[in-house]
């Protein structure tokens, strides 16, 4: 990354906008950031770091604390940084959270933090990458640079007092930095993937073992040998039970056949008695049958005469309608003649009404001509009234504004007297903040132990629930097993009845071979289907699987409880120095410190609010003074306007009559005349229309009377003709009158029903006589059987068969369960063996890659140790030069103590003593030289490996003052060589030799109104 332009506004000690153009320093500059103490040299590095990551280089101040107290209130604190990565240019702008003036109205509001990131295209256009979100901008910068804020401070900026951090970092911290710089995350992914695969295999093996134990526990067998012994002992018992069951089934089938034959014979005797009763009933119903036949014959004759009867009735209805229509037409004719006489009277009076209408229209025209004149007069009235009102308001407003101005002056003087002495607020804030942070950390450790204890309790509760759940699943499995066995028993018992349902006459029986089947077997119970048997078996297997899975989960919960208890014990040992009473005291101290911090913050806020209020009152007073001048000028203008309008009103009143000078009165008169004209015109039109309508209606009614007379005569003639035809037909069919015809007349469906009933009864008589003769012949040599004795024999056979079936089912179910479990155990053993063989390879690779072997060095750390060796070679070249050949940096080969990560620690070789010692033993100046060499060597190696990270810029903040004269000259020569190699190097130092040898500078001038910057090139 190479800086181009940095812009700071109201940031740190810079009260105004400051722009630093790094490109003006040259292609690969070595420059000095120079200025007095407190002028803002380190602030330039803070601004670069803040623009990129939202944090300062020292991480001691937040962005919200970087606002300059000397900046104007209307100036927003912000930092913009334009930089180059390879061939691409970028611009980022950040605004920290701060108080700012409201855009509308008085007072202040909170400006939330925001950030914008742009890519600068080749044509100079800015393409937005992040709109406003701060977190998104930081994430995008980390992606572009390949560094987070801590890594940026360690490899591109050596902050004041922190140059030893990278040098003294342990293996874990250095691994994080180097993996980001050299992009070795692929090795970490390999480690994690191997570790994940090994853990999955371990869990699978553990799950198979738990499942195997659950299988044995489920069948209540202690071992594989016990399982094989029980299977061997069950085989002869199962064979004998099967033979006994088949014999019991044969006995039951024979008894069932005898019972079926007895039931058939008894049914025949019962049917014979019913047929004899039906024969007697048919003989007693013979007269009623003859009567129904006569009713059917008369109904058919009446159906033939029904059209003549309906025609005569229709002619009667038509005659009555014609008579009613004749009376209605005559009445309407009389009413229309009277209405025509009345309409003629009104029509003759129309000329007089038309003359009155013309007079009203002339009056309306005269009044309408006065409306425009009166409208202008009303406008003058309204304008004069508004001008007078505005004049009065302006007078009152002027007096009120003067009072407000005097009141504001008094408030300003009172607020200036309220500012208290608050010089010690900053020190109190820092002290209280540090105490709060320390106490909070101690309490968090205690709360972590409480949380671990809570997890142990939760797991114990889950373990108890799992045990209870397992008992419920065991009961469910027992119930499913019992249901399955009962269904199997019913199914076997009903096989004889099922076989009998499939037999047909003439086909041999598959059991006895006979083609005659006189007594088929039956079953009183519903036989289960194959689907129901399969569902019952599946339910038993599902219940067994659920029980096995629950036992595995129970074992996993026990393992988790042990791990959580171990973690809780470790946390408790770390907190052994604190008792519950001491933690309460820490919380009380924390509360007191928080109250002190709140009080200090409140005092600082009070001071800021008082100053803000004074500024607001002074601005309001100036605005009020300006308003007073404007109101005086407006008052004079309004006085002139009122006088002018009053003269125009008097002139306009002389041209309008006194009765109509009110616009409401004139409009009311016009409205009344308009209504009278419209009503008179409507009356004339209605009279003409009524007269014309009365003439047309009278002529229409005359024609209606004539037509009604003709229709009535025609209906009388047709009615007499239809009556004569009906009487002739009644005499021919033997009916005495129309009443006799109507009684015999029945609907067609009723006649059809009577005919069907007669035919059915005659058919039933024939069938009953035939069946009666057949049964008398069949039962001539038979006697009624004793069904009770036969049923008792069948019940005894059923009981014996059920007992044999139950014994066989119990042995068969146990044998099936044992054999299935034996097969499942063999499959589980084969799968576990395959997993163990796989773990022998994957687990070993995972241990080696994750540093779980003897040297405790992971795959990624091994790769990084090779890269670190290259970095140390490059760093040692510069360190030997600056230390005059005394020191050389080495990688520590010894393994760290305990479980601490190792492989990336540093040591220093001292040529004077020929010994290797830790880097922590170096003095301040020696540590600075080593840290500088380390940073430069790291930059060289990263560039050589051509990764995505460009370390072509380095900033150094102080540290040169700890070097002697010779070491300082060597350090300066190293920086000059670095510049010649194409790097940008910025140095902050008060050492006079540095100022003499570095001519390109960024000068910072300090003043009471804030610092300013200036770029000076050699």
Describe the protein.
The chain is of the alpha+beta class and 1018 residues long. Among the domains are: 1-156 and 951-1018, P-loop containing nucleotide triphosphate hydrolases (Rossmann fold, 3-Layer(aba) Sandwich); 365-463 and 551-569 and 582-655; 676-705; 733-781. Helices cover 69% and strands 9% of the residues. The chain contains 22 helices and 17 strands. A 6-stranded antiparallel sheet has the order 2-1-4-5-8-9, with helices on one face. Helix 8 packs across helix 16 (738-744). The two termini are 23 Å apart. The model is unreliable at 421-427 (pLDDT under 50).
Short description:
The chain is α+β, with helices and mostly antiparallel strands.
Strand content: 5-15%
**What is the CATH-assigned architecture of the domain at 1-156 and 951-1018?**
3-Layer(aba) Sandwich
Q: Trace the largest sheet across and list its strands.
A: 2-1-4-5-8-9
Report the CATH C-level class of the domain at 1-156 and 951-1018. Answer: Alpha Beta
According to CATH, what is the topology of the domain at 1-156 and 951-1018? Rossmann fold
The count of strands amounts to 17
| Share of helix, binned | 55-70%
CATH superfamily of the domain at 1-156 and 951-1018: P-loop containing nucleotide triphosphate hydrolases
What is the distance, rounded to the nearest whole angstrom, between the alpha carbons of the first and last residues? 23 Å
Radius of gyration from the alpha-carbon trace, in angstroms: 59 Å
Which runs of at least 5 residues are low in confidence (pLDDT < 50)? 421-427
Structural class: alpha+beta
Q: What is the count of helical runs?
A: 22
Globular, elongated, flat, extended or rod-shaped: what is the shape? flat
Largest sheet: 6 strands, antiparallel
Average pLDDT score? 76
């Amino acid at each position: 990354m190479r800086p181009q332009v940095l812009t700071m506004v109201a940031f740190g000690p810079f009260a105004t906008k400051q722009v630093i153009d790094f490109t003006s320093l040259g292609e690969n500059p070595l420059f000095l950031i120079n200025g007095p103490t407190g002028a803002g040299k380190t602030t330039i590095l803070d601004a670069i770091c803040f623009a990129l990551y939202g944090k300062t280089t020292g991480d001691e101040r937040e962005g919200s604390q970087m606002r300059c107290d000397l900046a104007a209130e209307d100036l927003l604190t912000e930092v913009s940084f334009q930089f180059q990565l390879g061939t691409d240019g970028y611009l980022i702008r950040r605004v920290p959270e701060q108080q700012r003036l409201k855009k509308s109205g008085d007072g202040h509001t909170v400006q939330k933090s925001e950030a914008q990131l742009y890519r600068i295209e080749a044509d100079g256009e800015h393409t937005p990458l992040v709109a406003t979100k701060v977190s998104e901008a930081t994430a995008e910068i980390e992606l572009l640079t390949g560094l987070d804020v801590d890594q940026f401070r360690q490899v591109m900026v050596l902050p004041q007092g922190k140059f030893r951090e990278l040098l003294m970092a342990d293996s874990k911290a250095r691994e994080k930095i180097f993996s980001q710089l050299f992009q070795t995350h692929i090795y970490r992914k390999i480690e994690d993937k191997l570790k994940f695969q090994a853990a999955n295999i371990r869990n699978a093996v553990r799950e198979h073992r738990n499942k195997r134990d659950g299988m044995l526990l489920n069948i209540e067998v202690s071992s594989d040998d016990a399982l094989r012994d029980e299977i061997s002992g069950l085989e002869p018992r199962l064979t004998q039970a099967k033979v006994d069951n088949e014999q019991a089934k044969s006995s039951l089938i024979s008894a069932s056949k005898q019972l079926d034959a007895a039931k058939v014979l008894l049914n025949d005797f019962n049917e014979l008695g019913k047929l004899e009763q039906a024969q007697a009933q048919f003989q007693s119903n013979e007269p009623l049958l003859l009567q129904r036949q006569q009713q059917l014959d008369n109904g058919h004759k009446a159906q033939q005469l029904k059209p003549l009867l309906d025609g005569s009735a229709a002619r009667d209805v038509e005659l009555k309608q014609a008579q009613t229509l004749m009376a209605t037409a005559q009445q309407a004719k009389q009413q229309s003649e009277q209405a025509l006489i009345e309409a003629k009277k009104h029509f003759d009076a129309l000329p007089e009404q038309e003359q009155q209408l013309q007079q009203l229209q002339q009056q309306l025209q005269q009044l309408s001509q006065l409306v425009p004149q009166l409208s202008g007069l009303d406008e003058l009235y309204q304008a004069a009234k508004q001008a007078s009102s505005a004049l009065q308001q302006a007078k009152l407003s002027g007096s009120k504004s003067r009072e407000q101005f005097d009141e504001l002056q008094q408030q300003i003087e009172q607020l200036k007297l309220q500012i208290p002495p608050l010089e010690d607020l900053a020190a109190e804030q820092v002290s209280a903040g540090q105490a709060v942070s320390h106490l909070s950390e101690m309490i968090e450790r205690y709360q972590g132990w409480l949380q671990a204890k809570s997890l142990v309790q939760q797991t114990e509760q889950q373990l108890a629930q799992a045990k209870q759940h397992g008992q419920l699943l065991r009961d469910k499995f027992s119930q499913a097993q019992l249901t399955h066995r009962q269904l199997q028993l019913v199914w076997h018992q009903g096989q004889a009845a099922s076989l009998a349902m499939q037999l047909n006459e003439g086909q041999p029986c598959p059991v006895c071979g006979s083609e005659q089947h006189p007594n088929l077997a039956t079953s009183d119970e519903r036989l289960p289907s194959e689907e129901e048997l399969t569902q019952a078996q599946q339910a038993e297997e599902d219940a067994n699987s659920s029980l096995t899975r629950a036992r595995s989960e129970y074992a996993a919960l026990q393992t988790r409880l042990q791990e959580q208890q171990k973690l809780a014990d470790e946390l408790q040992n770390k907190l052994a120095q604190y008792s519950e009473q001491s933690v309460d005291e820490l919380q009380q101290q924390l509360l007191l410190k928080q109250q002190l911090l709140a009080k200090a913050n409140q005092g600082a806020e009070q001071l800021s609010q008082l100053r803000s209020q004074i500024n607001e009152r002074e601005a309001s007073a100036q605005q009020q003074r300006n308003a007073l001048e404007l109101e005086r000028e407006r008052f004079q203008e309004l006085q002139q306007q009122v006088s002018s309008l009053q003269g125009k009103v008097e002139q306009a009143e002389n041209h309008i009559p006194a009765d109509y000078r009110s616009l409401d009165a004139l409009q009311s008169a016009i409205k009344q005349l308009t209504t009278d004209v419209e009503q008179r015109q409507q009356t004339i039109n209605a009279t003409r229309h009524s007269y014309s309508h009365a003439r047309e209606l009278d002529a229409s009614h005359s024609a209606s009377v004539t037509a009604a007379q003709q229709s009535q005569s025609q209906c009388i003639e047709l009615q007499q003709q239809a009556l004569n035809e009906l009487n002739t037909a009644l005499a021919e069919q033997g009916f005495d009158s129309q009443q006799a015809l109507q009684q015999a007349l029945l609907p067609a469906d009723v006649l059809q029903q009577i005919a069907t009933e007669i035919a059915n009864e005659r058919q039933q008589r024939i069938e009953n006589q035939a069946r009666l003769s057949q049964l008398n012949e069949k039962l001539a040599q038979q006697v009624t059987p004793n069904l009770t004795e036969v049923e008792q024999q069948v019940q005894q056979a059923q009981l014996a068969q059920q007992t044999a079936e139950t014994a066989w089912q119990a042995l068969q179910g146990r044998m099936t369960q044992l054999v299935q479990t034996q097969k499942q155990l063999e499959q589980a053993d084969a799968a576990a063996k395959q997993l163990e063989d796989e773990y022998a390879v994957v687990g070993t690779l995972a241990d080696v890659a994750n540093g779980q072997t003897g040297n405790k060095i992971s795959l990624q750390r091994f790769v990084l140790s090779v890269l670190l060796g290259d970095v140390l070679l490059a760093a040692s070249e510069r360190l030997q030069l600056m230390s005059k050949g005394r020191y050389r940096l080495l990688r520590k080969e010894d393994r760290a103590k305990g479980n601490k990560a190792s492989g990336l620690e540093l040591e220093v070789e001292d040529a004077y003593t020929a010994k290797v010692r830790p880097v922590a033993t170096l003095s301040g100046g020696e540590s600075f030289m080593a840290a500088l060499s380390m940073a430069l060597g790291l930059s060289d190696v990263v560039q050589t490996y051509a990764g995505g990270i460009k370390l072509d810029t380095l900033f150094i903040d102080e540290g040169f003052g700890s070097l002697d004269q010779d070491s300082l000259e060597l350090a300066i020569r190293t920086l000059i060589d670095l510049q010649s190699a194409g790097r940008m190097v910025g140095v902050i130092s008060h050492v006079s030799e540095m100022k003499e040898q570095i001519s390109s500078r960024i000068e910072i001038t300090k003043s009471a109104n804030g610092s300013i910057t200036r770029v000076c090139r050699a």
